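Can anyone check this?
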Amino acid sequence: MLRILEPANRLPTRCMLWSLAGNLVRRARTRPTAFWLLSSCILLNHGPLYAEWVEVESKYQMPGLQTVYLDREMIVRDGHLATVQQLTDYRWMQGGPRSTPRFLSTTTRKQFDCAEHRLRLLAFTEFPRRMAGGKPSAEYVDKDKWLPVRPDSIDQTLWELVCEAK
């Protein structure tokens, strides 16, 4: 059975203007331009942006080891192509002590070719904390390499969600 569960978590997405606020507050006391820029940022930014991560229920998930989420608002369809944003939250720290930095969650941007039953990775980011928390570490992705959607996999579940539910 395939279904999407209710929204599991709303995560604030960093706003570039708010990340500059700390420096602007210090400069606003001595520079009028910084004061007006900070004031504009506060007035124009009504609140944080959120990603609506929805847990994907699938018989192909590894219960107790990882949970896969999908951002329904970020599904983009263009003809037979569908692009999605996936978050994988791990129960235990991943990565080796000597190889890659250790991480507890990843976000992956995938593009599915619904007609050819294949996918490619567009972006992959690792995070040291759960639910995409902490300082991100982007990884290299070969965007030109298409991979078949393996049966009995979480990618098969995502393919069914975005390609068969048009």
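Reply from J.R.: I decoded it. The two ends are 18 Å apart (CA to CA).
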